[in-house]
Task: structure prediction
Amino acid sequence: MSKKVIMPITNGFEEIEAITIIDILRRAGAAVTVAALEGRQITGAHNIEIKTDAALEDILNEEYDLVVLAGGGKNADSLGEDKQAQTLIKRQFAAGKLVAAICAAPLALHRAGAIKGEYTCFSGCEQTIGDGYVQKNVVENGNVITSRGPGTAGEFALALAAALYGKETADKLKKGMYY
Amino acid sequence: MSKKVIMPITNGFEEIEAITIIDILRRAGAAVTVAALEGRQITGAHNIEIKTDAALEDILNEEYDLVVLAGGGKNADSLGEDKQAQTLIKRQFAAGKLVAAICAAPLALHRAGAIKGEYTCFSGCEQTIGDGYVQKNVVENGNVITSRGPGTAGEFALALAAALYGKETADKLKKGMYY
Result:
């Protein structure tokens, strides 16, 4: 059965990060819903406009196998401030289910109390998040997976694919996509 | 002055490739126009819908520093068959200016007669393109730059940034983005 993934997102998202995660997880077989905080048509940090699959408020109460956050400063700030996004992250984390974030978005996990122990993020964000910062491309820490930036988005998405579907599926994707 | 880049594109485009190229070249300072073959709202191979910046027919006669093609089988086929896209590639190549393609899109360069000598592409496409295929992530051959697939899109886009703005700019982006 398809794993259910939700990516809450809004204006200012980092395009490479968001699209790499969505693309690779869909290739893995996941049902990925890109859910806008407000409006359905959103614009990234480099002026690429995408249409989301749903409004977050309409699907907030469904169950997900993974809640994943793309970066982009403004997007990450909004995810940290938005009540519905925070509710989603807190509920997922409290249930011991998978949450993940890249670039500046670990800040939004931190706001939800979901970062305990080792994590990584875009350089500088650790000054707000605090103890546990390690300089690795991807950090897997229990049910929390974090990563650094656009150039690590492929490795991050493949780690998420492995967490959901196993290493064999991820390795196959990695090879077929030239990662 | 901003370098002018055009990416002719249509339904079925590979999302990681298209978005990585646009994002990195905009970070480098280029004025990148994403130009649809038909319609302004297009959908990628993994069901991500983006809004393009223009219709190709409206800006076909402008001059560009780079014509770059993302992959995705259906997108690459369309770029090979579309008269306007083929005109654009032929004119750019004949002027000795930069053309580039990744994944299946070197097929569209081939259709325009723009592949002579060494190139790379997504595995299998070389059976149509013919002699000159090499298994490298990025091949720079005069004014033609080619690459293999989603996982090499970052390296490809950074090579394009270096060709337009110099190695120092590309190296700075590479480091700042964790490539």
About this structure: The first strand of chain B starts at residue 4 and ends at 9. Chain B has a mean pLDDT of 97. The two ends of chain B are 26 Å apart (CA to CA). Chain B touches chain A through 31 residues (CB under 8 Å).
